[in-house]
Amino acid sequence: MTKITKPSDVKRDWVVIDATGKRFGRMLTEVATLLRGKHKPSYTPNVDCGDYVIIINAGKATYTGLNKGSDKLYHRHSGYFGSVKSEKFEDLLEKNPVKLYKLAVRGMLPKTKLGREMLKKLKVYEGNEHPHTAQISKKGN
């Protein structure tokens, strides 16, 4: 018989990942797995089993693709006619790398209430410092 994990039984860890020199997309697929909890044997699809993830040095990751900076676009829409706004990858990386990381991870999580709760456990910081030193129990890759 398969054991179903209850939300009260979930143990959450804090994982710190240093983005310096890591590939952007490869790192974020690992982050999405950690946020969902798929790395745990007690994974249950309808329960938020994931860990908290802290990414430091967000602007220092490496990016592949010859023209990704100028060709890749992120769109947003307010719902009104003609209100589509687009930002280039390189502009978003320069202005707000935290938003870039959140957008990329959001696309890898479920598009439900559960996915929105999982995304709240992602903390991204541009620098080397973060305010969660009291919670840290694990060091990421």
Automatic annotation (TrEMBL):
PROSITE patterns: RIBOSOMAL_L13. It comes from the Bacteria. Keywords: Ribonucleoprotein, Ribosomal protein. The keyword Ribonucleoprotein applies. GO terms for cellular component: cytosolic large ribosomal subunit. GO terms for molecular function: mRNA binding; structural constituent of ribosome. Belongs to the universal ribosomal protein uL13 family. NCBIfam families: rplM_bact. Part of the 50S ribosomal subunit. HAMAP family: Ribosomal_uL13 (MF_01366). This is Large ribosomal subunit protein uL13. It comes from Campylobacter blaseri. The lineage of its organism: Bacteria, Pseudomonadati, Campylobacterota, Epsilonproteobacteria, Campylobacterales.
